[in-house]
Amino acid sequence: MKTFKSIFGIVVCSFVSLCLGADVASANGNTKTLKVLSIGNSFSANAHKLLPQIASSMGKELILRNAFIGGCSLERHARHMKEYEQNPQKGNVYHGGSLIKLLELEDWDIVTIQQVSHESFKPETFEPFASEIIERIKKHAPNAEIVVHQTWGYNKNNIRLKDWGMTPEEMSARIIKTYSDFSEKNKFRQIPSGEMFAAANKTPLSIQSHGFPATIYARDGYHASIYGEYFLGCIWYNFLFNEDVAPTAFKPNEISEEDASFLRNLANSL
Fold first, then answer.
1. What does pTM read for this prediction?
2. Which of 13, 109, 142, 169 is most buried as measured by Cβ atoms within 10 A of its Cβ?
3. Which distant-in-sequence residues (6+ apart) come within 8 Å of 70 by Cβ?
C-alpha cells in the first residue's frame, strides 16, 4: 500500500461538540454527540474524508478521529501498543501520541479496527494481533463498542491482482469472508464497505472524469476516488446513525446528482 506520513486526524461536525464534548441539541431535537475512533490506515482515511460533511448536513453531532499510519497492518498497530507499554518513550508514532493515549482521550462510543488491504483476504494475518488490540481497547476504552471496518478489494487495473493470480471478484469474495468469519467469531458488527464496493462495481457511473468513465477507485486501483469517498461516507453514516442518507444531504460539487443518488441509494440498502 502507498505509504503516507503517520497522522492522527480529527474532524468535528460541530464547534460546540468539540468545545464541550457533551450532548448538544440539533435541528432535529436533542441528540447525543457520537464519538468514533478508527484504528486503521489510508482506507480509514478514505472512509472519513466526507463523513463529517454528510453527518453535519443531516443534523448529527459527530466527533471523528482517525489514528492511522499509511499501509499499517494489525500487526504493526499491536506492536506499537506493546512498545508504549514497555517504554512510554516508544510507540508514540501517531500525531497525539500512542494508541493507548488516544483510547483514553475520549469516552468513545465506537472504536473501529481493520486490516491493511493487501492482507485483508488472509485470515492468518489477523491473529494474534487483532486480539492484542481488542484486549487493549477493552482495557482503555471500556465503554466503546468495537466495530470491524470491512475493507474493499482492488479493481481490475491494479497490478497486484495479476501478481496474486486473482480477479477483483475473487479478492472481494475472500475479503468479505475473512472479515465476516472474524466478526462472527468475536461477535462484532461490521461496516460492510467491501460488500458495498463489490455491489457498486456492477453498475458503471454515468459521469466522465478527465475523459474517462468515473469509478469509485482512485487511479492506483485500490484507494477510493472522490466518488468512493462519498460512497464510503454514506455507508458509514447509515451504519453509525441507523438511518438513510437523505437526498438533501451534502454531496461534493464534482459528483453529479445522478451519481450521488445512485451511491446514496446503494448505501441505504445496508
1. 0.86
2. 13
3. 1, 2, 3, 4, 5, 6, 41, 42
